[in-house]
Amino acid sequence: MKETTRVNHPPAVELAADNHSVVAPIYQSVKFEFDSLDETERFFRGERPGFFYTRTSNPTTRQLELLLAELQGRDDCLACASGVGAISQTLLALTKQGDHIICFVETYNPTRYLIRRLLARFGVTHTMLSIEDTAGVEKALAAHKTRLVMFESPTNPVTKIADIAALTRMARSAGALTIMDNTFAGFHQHGQFEVDLFVHSLTKYASGAGDVMGGAVIGRTELIRSIRTDWGMLGGTLDPHAAFLILRGLKTYFVRYEAQCANAMRIAQVLAVHPAVSRVHYPGLPTHPQHELAKAQMKQFGTIVSFDLQAGADAGARFAGALKLFALTASLGSTESLVVAPSMMGGRDLTQDQLRVSAVTEGTVRLSIGLEDVDDLTEDVNQALAVSSPST
Ligand SMILES: *Cc1c(COP(=O)(O)O)cnc(C)c1O
Protein backbone atom coordinates (compact mmCIF):
# COMPACT_ATOMS: atom_id res chain seq x y z
CA MET A 1 0.00 0.00 0.00
CA LYS A 2 1.46 3.37 -1.01
CA GLU A 3 1.50 6.22 1.53
CA THR A 4 -1.13 8.16 -0.40
CA THR A 5 -3.42 5.15 -0.10
CA ARG A 6 -2.49 4.49 3.53
CA VAL A 7 -3.42 7.96 4.76
CA ASN A 8 -6.91 7.30 3.39
CA HIS A 9 -7.10 3.85 4.99
CA PRO A 10 -5.41 4.26 8.40
CA PRO A 11 -4.81 1.20 10.60
CA ALA A 12 -8.00 0.03 12.30
CA VAL A 13 -8.00 0.00 16.11
CA GLU A 14 -10.59 -2.46 17.36
CA LEU A 15 -11.82 -2.63 20.95
CA ALA A 16 -12.34 -6.13 22.34
CA ALA A 17 -15.96 -6.92 23.18
CA ASP A 18 -15.07 -6.87 26.92
CA ASN A 19 -13.21 -3.56 26.76
CA HIS A 20 -15.43 -0.45 26.83
CA SER A 21 -14.86 3.28 26.77
CA VAL A 22 -16.63 4.87 29.74
CA VAL A 23 -17.73 7.87 27.69
CA ALA A 24 -19.20 6.87 24.34
CA PRO A 25 -16.88 7.87 21.49
CA ILE A 26 -17.94 10.51 19.01
CA TYR A 27 -18.89 8.79 15.77
CA GLN A 28 -17.50 11.64 13.69
CA SER A 29 -18.25 9.78 10.48
CA VAL A 30 -20.72 10.64 7.75
CA LYS A 31 -20.76 7.12 6.27
CA PHE A 32 -21.15 3.65 7.72
CA GLU A 33 -20.76 0.38 5.84
CA PHE A 34 -21.80 -3.21 6.35
CA ASP A 35 -19.50 -6.17 5.69
CA SER A 36 -21.34 -7.23 2.54
CA LEU A 37 -23.75 -5.99 -0.10
CA ASP A 38 -26.28 -8.56 1.17
CA GLU A 39 -26.26 -6.96 4.62
CA THR A 40 -26.42 -3.48 3.06
CA GLU A 41 -29.50 -4.55 1.12
CA ARG A 42 -31.07 -6.09 4.24
CA PHE A 43 -30.53 -2.74 6.00
CA PHE A 44 -32.27 -0.89 3.19
CA ARG A 45 -35.21 -3.32 3.36
CA GLY A 46 -35.50 -2.55 7.08
CA GLU A 47 -34.60 -6.12 8.01
CA ARG A 48 -31.67 -5.21 10.25
CA PRO A 49 -30.67 -2.21 12.40
CA GLY A 50 -27.65 -0.11 11.62
CA PHE A 51 -26.37 3.22 10.39
CA PHE A 52 -25.59 4.23 6.84
CA TYR A 53 -25.53 8.01 6.40
CA THR A 54 -25.32 10.58 9.21
CA ARG A 55 -27.93 12.94 7.73
CA THR A 56 -30.45 10.19 8.50
CA SER A 57 -28.96 8.85 11.73
CA ASN A 58 -25.69 8.52 13.61
CA PRO A 59 -24.82 6.56 16.78
CA THR A 60 -23.74 9.62 18.81
CA THR A 61 -26.79 11.61 17.79
CA ARG A 62 -28.96 8.56 18.44
CA GLN A 63 -27.64 8.27 21.99
CA LEU A 64 -28.66 11.87 22.59
CA GLU A 65 -32.11 11.26 21.08
CA LEU A 66 -32.76 8.21 23.25
CA LEU A 67 -31.68 10.08 26.39
CA LEU A 68 -33.88 13.09 25.62
CA ALA A 69 -36.90 10.87 24.91
CA GLU A 70 -36.44 9.22 28.29
CA LEU A 71 -36.00 12.52 30.17
CA GLN A 72 -39.18 13.89 28.59
CA GLY A 73 -41.07 10.64 29.25
CA ARG A 74 -41.79 9.72 25.63
CA ASP A 75 -40.83 6.91 23.22
CA ASP A 76 -38.71 8.62 20.64
CA CYS A 77 -36.89 11.76 19.61
CA LEU A 78 -35.26 13.35 16.57
CA ALA A 79 -32.44 15.82 17.02
CA CYS A 80 -31.43 18.56 14.63
CA ALA A 81 -29.07 21.48 14.25
CA SER A 82 -31.02 24.15 16.19
CA GLY A 83 -34.21 24.71 18.12
CA VAL A 84 -35.70 26.70 15.27
CA GLY A 85 -34.71 23.84 12.95
CA ALA A 86 -36.67 21.43 15.16
CA ILE A 87 -39.71 23.70 15.05
CA SER A 88 -39.58 24.38 11.30
CA GLN A 89 -38.98 20.75 10.35
CA THR A 90 -41.80 19.60 12.65
CA LEU A 91 -44.25 22.17 11.28
CA LEU A 92 -43.30 21.40 7.67
CA ALA A 93 -43.54 17.65 8.22
CA LEU A 94 -46.99 17.86 9.83
CA THR A 95 -48.83 20.37 7.65
CA LYS A 96 -50.09 20.66 4.08
CA GLN A 97 -51.97 23.24 2.02
CA GLY A 98 -55.34 24.10 3.55
CA ASP A 99 -54.41 23.10 7.11
CA HIS A 100 -55.16 25.43 10.02
CA ILE A 101 -52.93 26.11 13.03
CA ILE A 102 -53.76 27.77 16.35
CA CYS A 103 -50.84 29.73 17.79
CA PHE A 104 -50.32 32.46 20.34
CA VAL A 105 -49.20 36.08 20.61
CA GLU A 106 -46.90 35.06 23.48
CA THR A 107 -44.72 32.90 21.28
CA TYR A 108 -41.04 32.87 20.42
CA ASN A 109 -40.61 35.30 17.50
CA PRO A 110 -39.17 32.83 14.93
CA THR A 111 -42.08 30.45 15.62
CA ARG A 112 -44.50 33.26 14.86
CA TYR A 113 -42.56 33.96 11.66
CA LEU A 114 -42.65 30.30 10.61
CA ILE A 115 -46.42 30.07 11.06
CA ARG A 116 -47.49 33.53 9.93
CA ARG A 117 -45.07 34.06 7.05
CA LEU A 118 -43.44 30.85 5.85
CA LEU A 119 -46.31 28.35 6.22
CA ALA A 120 -48.75 31.00 4.96
CA ARG A 121 -46.87 30.94 1.64
CA PHE A 122 -47.81 27.27 1.33
CA GLY A 123 -51.50 27.87 2.07
CA VAL A 124 -51.50 26.99 5.77
CA THR A 125 -53.79 29.33 7.72
CA HIS A 126 -53.68 30.22 11.39
CA THR A 127 -55.55 31.85 14.24
CA MET A 128 -53.38 33.74 16.73
CA LEU A 129 -54.78 34.19 20.24
CA SER A 130 -53.53 35.05 23.70
CA ILE A 131 -52.28 32.06 25.67
CA GLU A 132 -54.70 33.19 28.41
CA ASP A 133 -57.70 33.01 26.05
CA THR A 134 -58.82 29.43 26.67
CA ALA A 135 -62.37 30.24 25.55
CA GLY A 136 -60.96 31.63 22.30
CA VAL A 137 -59.14 28.35 21.65
CA GLU A 138 -62.38 26.43 22.14
CA LYS A 139 -64.13 28.78 19.70
CA ALA A 140 -61.36 28.60 17.10
CA LEU A 141 -61.32 24.79 17.28
CA ALA A 142 -65.07 24.77 16.70
CA ALA A 143 -64.84 27.26 13.82
CA HIS A 144 -61.95 25.64 11.90
CA LYS A 145 -60.92 22.05 11.41
CA THR A 146 -57.47 22.43 13.04
CA ARG A 147 -54.33 20.42 12.35
CA LEU A 148 -52.33 21.54 15.36
CA VAL A 149 -52.08 23.84 18.35
CA MET A 150 -48.58 25.21 18.98
CA PHE A 151 -47.78 26.76 22.36
CA GLU A 152 -45.13 27.45 25.02
CA SER A 153 -45.04 27.63 28.80
CA PRO A 154 -43.65 29.62 30.53
CA THR A 155 -43.85 32.11 27.69
CA ASN A 156 -41.07 34.40 26.54
CA PRO A 157 -40.34 36.93 27.97
CA VAL A 158 -43.02 37.50 30.64
CA THR A 159 -43.42 33.89 31.82
CA LYS A 160 -47.16 33.47 31.35
CA ILE A 161 -48.25 29.93 32.12
CA ALA A 162 -50.31 27.93 29.61
CA ASP A 163 -53.12 25.78 31.02
CA ILE A 164 -51.66 22.63 29.46
CA ALA A 165 -54.38 20.23 30.61
CA ALA A 166 -57.10 22.46 29.14
CA LEU A 167 -55.26 23.03 25.85
CA THR A 168 -54.45 19.36 25.29
CA ARG A 169 -58.00 18.25 26.22
CA MET A 170 -59.63 20.73 23.85
CA ALA A 171 -57.21 19.98 21.02
CA ARG A 172 -57.56 16.24 21.42
CA SER A 173 -61.35 16.28 21.36
CA ALA A 174 -61.20 18.42 18.20
CA GLY A 175 -58.76 16.00 16.54
CA ALA A 176 -55.87 18.51 16.56
CA LEU A 177 -52.30 17.72 17.55
CA THR A 178 -50.56 19.71 20.27
CA ILE A 179 -46.95 20.81 19.94
CA MET A 180 -45.40 22.34 23.01
CA ASP A 181 -42.14 24.27 22.85
CA ASN A 182 -40.85 23.16 26.26
CA THR A 183 -37.49 24.95 26.09
CA PHE A 184 -38.12 27.28 29.06
CA ALA A 185 -39.35 24.52 31.38
CA GLY A 186 -36.82 21.86 30.38
CA PHE A 187 -36.77 18.16 29.54
CA HIS A 188 -37.84 17.02 33.02
CA GLN A 189 -41.06 18.98 33.10
CA HIS A 190 -44.60 18.73 31.65
CA GLY A 191 -44.20 15.08 30.56
CA GLN A 192 -47.32 14.19 32.57
CA PHE A 193 -49.55 16.09 30.14
CA GLU A 194 -51.04 14.64 26.95
CA VAL A 195 -48.88 16.81 24.72
CA ASP A 196 -48.36 15.07 21.37
CA LEU A 197 -44.96 16.53 20.56
CA PHE A 198 -42.46 18.47 22.63
CA VAL A 199 -39.92 20.61 20.82
CA HIS A 200 -36.79 21.92 22.54
CA SER A 201 -33.87 24.15 21.81
CA LEU A 202 -30.85 22.15 22.96
CA THR A 203 -28.88 25.38 22.69
CA LYS A 204 -30.10 26.45 26.13
CA TYR A 205 -30.23 24.20 29.21
CA ALA A 206 -28.99 20.99 27.57
CA SER A 207 -25.35 21.99 27.35
CA GLY A 208 -25.56 24.98 29.68
CA ALA A 209 -22.21 26.13 28.32
CA GLY A 210 -23.60 28.33 25.58
CA ASP A 211 -21.10 26.88 23.11
CA VAL A 212 -23.24 24.57 20.98
CA MET A 213 -26.57 24.68 19.12
CA GLY A 214 -29.15 21.96 18.72
CA GLY A 215 -32.85 21.17 18.70
CA ALA A 216 -35.12 18.19 19.22
CA VAL A 217 -38.66 16.94 18.80
CA ILE A 218 -39.91 14.28 21.22
CA GLY A 219 -43.07 12.17 21.10
CA ARG A 220 -44.67 8.79 20.72
CA THR A 221 -43.24 6.24 18.28
CA GLU A 222 -45.75 6.48 15.44
CA LEU A 223 -45.81 10.26 15.40
CA ILE A 224 -42.00 10.48 15.30
CA ARG A 225 -41.96 7.77 12.62
CA SER A 226 -44.42 9.81 10.54
CA ILE A 227 -42.07 12.81 10.41
CA ARG A 228 -38.71 10.99 10.32
CA THR A 229 -38.42 10.77 6.50
CA ASP A 230 -39.28 14.44 5.98
CA TRP A 231 -36.71 15.38 8.65
CA GLY A 232 -34.03 13.45 6.80
CA MET A 233 -34.92 15.25 3.58
CA LEU A 234 -35.14 18.71 5.14
CA GLY A 235 -31.61 18.02 6.23
CA GLY A 236 -31.03 20.17 9.30
CA THR A 237 -28.95 17.39 10.86
CA LEU A 238 -27.21 17.79 14.20
CA ASP A 239 -23.50 17.17 13.84
CA PRO A 240 -22.21 14.23 15.95
CA HIS A 241 -19.64 16.46 17.63
CA ALA A 242 -22.40 18.85 18.71
CA ALA A 243 -24.43 15.86 19.92
CA PHE A 244 -21.44 14.78 22.01
CA LEU A 245 -21.08 18.24 23.58
CA ILE A 246 -24.80 18.27 24.40
CA LEU A 247 -24.61 14.78 25.92
CA ARG A 248 -21.69 15.98 28.04
CA GLY A 249 -23.64 19.03 29.15
CA LEU A 250 -26.68 16.96 30.10
CA LYS A 251 -24.68 15.16 32.80
CA THR A 252 -24.93 18.31 34.94
CA TYR A 253 -28.39 19.37 33.69
CA PHE A 254 -30.34 18.62 36.89
CA VAL A 255 -27.88 20.25 39.31
CA ARG A 256 -27.51 23.29 37.08
CA TYR A 257 -31.25 23.69 36.59
CA GLU A 258 -31.96 23.41 40.30
CA ALA A 259 -29.20 25.79 41.37
CA GLN A 260 -30.10 28.35 38.70
CA CYS A 261 -33.79 28.18 39.70
CA ALA A 262 -32.83 28.86 43.31
CA ASN A 263 -30.79 31.87 42.19
CA ALA A 264 -33.68 33.05 39.98
CA MET A 265 -36.09 32.88 42.91
CA ARG A 266 -33.77 35.03 45.02
CA ILE A 267 -33.36 37.62 42.27
CA ALA A 268 -37.14 37.68 41.71
CA GLN A 269 -37.65 38.34 45.43
CA VAL A 270 -35.08 41.14 45.42
CA LEU A 271 -36.77 42.78 42.44
CA ALA A 272 -40.27 42.32 43.90
CA VAL A 273 -39.58 44.59 46.88
CA HIS A 274 -37.54 47.23 45.04
CA PRO A 275 -39.26 50.62 44.66
CA ALA A 276 -37.91 51.14 41.13
CA VAL A 277 -39.65 48.00 39.90
CA SER A 278 -43.34 48.13 39.01
CA ARG A 279 -43.87 44.47 38.18
CA VAL A 280 -41.93 41.20 38.35
CA HIS A 281 -42.75 38.19 36.18
CA TYR A 282 -41.56 34.96 37.79
CA PRO A 283 -43.91 31.96 38.11
CA GLY A 284 -42.35 31.03 41.46
CA LEU A 285 -43.52 34.26 43.12
CA PRO A 286 -46.90 34.01 44.88
CA THR A 287 -47.74 37.38 43.27
CA HIS A 288 -47.48 35.87 39.76
CA PRO A 289 -51.10 35.83 38.47
CA GLN A 290 -50.80 32.14 37.54
CA HIS A 291 -48.63 31.01 40.45
CA GLU A 292 -51.15 28.31 41.47
CA LEU A 293 -51.30 26.92 37.93
CA ALA A 294 -47.50 27.00 37.71
CA LYS A 295 -47.23 25.17 41.04
CA ALA A 296 -49.67 22.50 39.85
CA GLN A 297 -47.87 21.98 36.52
CA MET A 298 -44.18 22.49 37.29
CA LYS A 299 -41.54 20.99 39.55
CA GLN A 300 -39.35 24.07 39.22
CA PHE A 301 -40.15 27.53 37.90
CA GLY A 302 -37.25 28.14 35.54
CA THR A 303 -34.44 30.65 35.37
CA ILE A 304 -36.02 33.54 33.46
CA VAL A 305 -37.03 36.55 35.54
CA SER A 306 -38.59 39.51 33.71
CA PHE A 307 -39.61 42.81 35.22
CA ASP A 308 -40.84 46.29 34.40
CA LEU A 309 -39.12 49.40 35.64
CA GLN A 310 -41.33 52.25 36.89
CA ALA A 311 -39.28 54.70 34.82
CA GLY A 312 -39.81 52.85 31.50
CA ALA A 313 -37.62 52.25 28.47
CA ASP A 314 -34.74 54.62 29.28
CA ALA A 315 -34.40 53.18 32.75
CA GLY A 316 -34.41 49.68 31.23
CA ALA A 317 -31.59 50.64 28.91
CA ARG A 318 -29.61 52.22 31.78
CA PHE A 319 -30.20 49.14 33.96
CA ALA A 320 -29.02 46.71 31.28
CA GLY A 321 -25.98 48.85 30.57
CA ALA A 322 -25.03 49.17 34.24
CA LEU A 323 -25.03 45.42 34.99
CA LYS A 324 -21.53 44.02 35.28
CA LEU A 325 -22.06 40.28 35.61
CA PHE A 326 -24.87 39.91 33.07
CA ALA A 327 -23.93 39.64 29.38
CA LEU A 328 -26.10 41.88 27.20
CA THR A 329 -27.31 39.24 24.77
CA ALA A 330 -30.05 36.85 23.70
CA SER A 331 -30.54 33.23 24.70
CA LEU A 332 -30.93 31.65 28.15
CA GLY A 333 -30.11 28.60 30.19
CA SER A 334 -26.36 29.08 30.17
CA THR A 335 -24.31 29.07 33.37
CA GLU A 336 -23.51 32.77 33.00
CA SER A 337 -26.27 35.33 33.62
CA LEU A 338 -27.67 37.29 30.69
CA VAL A 339 -29.82 40.37 30.20
CA VAL A 340 -32.10 41.46 27.36
CA ALA A 341 -32.84 45.21 27.36
CA PRO A 342 -36.27 46.54 26.29
CA SER A 343 -35.01 47.70 22.88
CA MET A 344 -33.68 44.20 22.15
CA MET A 345 -37.10 42.60 22.69
CA GLY A 346 -38.84 41.20 19.60
CA GLY A 347 -42.45 41.92 18.71
CA ARG A 348 -42.14 44.33 15.81
CA ASP A 349 -44.51 42.07 13.86
CA LEU A 350 -47.29 42.57 16.42
CA THR A 351 -50.11 45.13 16.35
CA GLN A 352 -50.61 47.53 19.28
CA ASP A 353 -53.42 45.29 20.58
CA GLN A 354 -51.27 42.20 20.35
CA LEU A 355 -48.38 43.98 22.06
CA ARG A 356 -50.73 44.87 24.92
CA VAL A 357 -51.79 41.21 25.17
CA SER A 358 -48.13 40.12 25.16
CA ALA A 359 -47.62 42.12 28.41
CA VAL A 360 -44.23 43.27 27.15
CA THR A 361 -43.92 46.98 27.92
CA GLU A 362 -41.40 49.61 26.89
CA GLY A 363 -39.61 49.00 30.16
CA THR A 364 -39.57 45.19 30.23
CA VAL A 365 -36.16 43.73 31.04
CA ARG A 366 -35.48 39.99 30.82
CA LEU A 367 -32.86 38.31 32.97
CA SER A 368 -31.58 34.78 32.47
CA ILE A 369 -30.09 33.73 35.78
CA GLY A 370 -26.89 31.71 35.82
CA LEU A 371 -24.78 29.81 38.29
CA GLU A 372 -22.83 32.71 39.78
CA ASP A 373 -22.91 33.32 43.53
CA VAL A 374 -26.35 34.70 44.31
CA ASP A 375 -25.01 37.45 46.59
CA ASP A 376 -22.84 38.73 43.76
CA LEU A 377 -25.82 38.67 41.40
CA THR A 378 -28.01 40.47 43.94
CA GLU A 379 -25.39 43.15 44.50
CA ASP A 380 -25.05 43.65 40.75
CA VAL A 381 -28.83 43.92 40.25
CA ASN A 382 -29.13 46.39 43.13
CA GLN A 383 -26.33 48.65 41.90
CA ALA A 384 -27.79 48.63 38.36
CA LEU A 385 -31.24 49.53 39.75
CA ALA A 386 -29.66 52.42 41.64
CA VAL A 387 -28.02 53.65 38.42
CA SER A 388 -31.17 53.22 36.32
CA SER A 389 -33.60 54.87 38.75
CA PRO A 390 -31.52 57.20 40.95
CA SER A 391 -34.53 58.87 42.62
CA THR A 392 -35.83 55.67 44.24
C1 LIG B 1 -33.99 29.70 21.83
C2 LIG B 1 -35.37 29.19 21.66
C3 LIG B 1 -35.73 28.54 20.48
C4 LIG B 1 -34.80 28.38 19.30
O1 LIG B 1 -33.67 27.69 19.57
P1 LIG B 1 -32.30 27.86 18.73
O2 LIG B 1 -31.53 26.69 19.20
O3 LIG B 1 -31.73 29.18 19.08
O4 LIG B 1 -32.68 27.77 17.28
C5 LIG B 1 -37.02 28.07 20.38
N1 LIG B 1 -37.92 28.24 21.36
C6 LIG B 1 -37.60 28.88 22.50
C7 LIG B 1 -38.65 29.02 23.55
C8 LIG B 1 -36.33 29.39 22.70
O5 LIG B 1 -36.03 30.03 23.82
Q: Which descriptors apply to this entry?
A:
392 residues, alpha/beta, Aspartate Aminotransferase, domain 2, Aspartate Aminotransferase, domain 1, 7-stranded mixed sheet, 5-stranded mixed sheet, 14 helices, 12 strands, 40% helix, globular, binds pyridoxal-5'-phosphate
Quaternary organisation:
single chain
N-to-C series of helices and strands? HHHEHEHEHEHEEEHHHEHEHEEHEH
Q: Which cofactors or ions or other ligands sit in this model? A: pyridoxal-5'-phosphate
Q: Please, how many helices?
A: 14
Domain unit count: 2
- What Rg, in angstroms, do the CA atoms define? 23 Å
- Return the CATH class of the largest domain: Alpha Beta
Beta-strand percentage range? 5-15%
CATH architecture field of the largest domain:
3-Layer(aba) Sandwich
Helix content bin: 25-40%
The dominant shape is globular
Largest sheet: 7 strands, mixed
CATH topology of the largest domain: Aspartate Aminotransferase, domain 2
Unreliable residue runs: none
| Overall residue-averaged pLDDT value | 95
CATH superfamily of the largest domain: Type I PLP-dependent aspartate aminotransferase-like (Major domain)
Distance between the ends: 80 Å
Provide the spatial order of strands within the biggest beta sheet.
1-7-6-5-4-2-3
Strand segment count: 12
